[in-house]
Amino acid sequence: MIGIAHCIHNRIVAGWHSGDWLKVISEYPLHSADLIEDIDFRSLPELRDPNFNWLVPQVERLYSGTLRDTVTASPSIAFAMPRADALGKRAIAPPPHGALFWCDLNRVTRKWFKDNILAVRDQHPILSHSFPLTFIG
Asked: What are the tens digits of pLDDT across the range 114-137?
């Protein structure tokens, strides 16, 4: 679940819907790998579920910008490389980009997702896996 929350945050950072959180969240089915009629977005979580109680503060940290994306971001050697020297002779690698899409590759049912996301790997590379989910840039 935290990976999906990171994807939504990455969409905000990428400027989707001018950074409007509610708009991005409400329109997530439009970019889903599942058929819209198969998505259960009406059920509410059990408030005493320990997994849900763990997730709430994580999402609060994500919203405030204090939770680093270690789930959907592509591993990068940039963190291990030395910083640019004082003269700027050594370039700093760009920070890793987080995923914008997620799916279970064994259960993609929506043709739009197959044609526009999975079929265009040069524009939407697979960045990470947190089984069963795959995170795509």
From this structure: 999 999 998 999 999 888 999 998
Contact 111, 127 (CB under 8 A): no
Taking only the tens place, the pLDDT of each residue in 44-72 is 899 999 999 999 999 999 988 888 888 88
Residue 118 per-residue DSSP state: I
Whole-angstrom distance, CA of residue 50 vs CA of residue 70: 21
Residues contacting residue 70 through CB under 8 Å, at least 6 positions apart: none
> What percent helix, strand, coil does the chain show, rounded to 5?
40, 10, 50
Q: Which residues contact 86 (CB under 8 A, 6 or more apart)?
A: none
Residue 69 tokens read as 């994306």
Distance (Å) of CA 52 to CA 18, 67, 77, 106: 28, 17, 33, 25
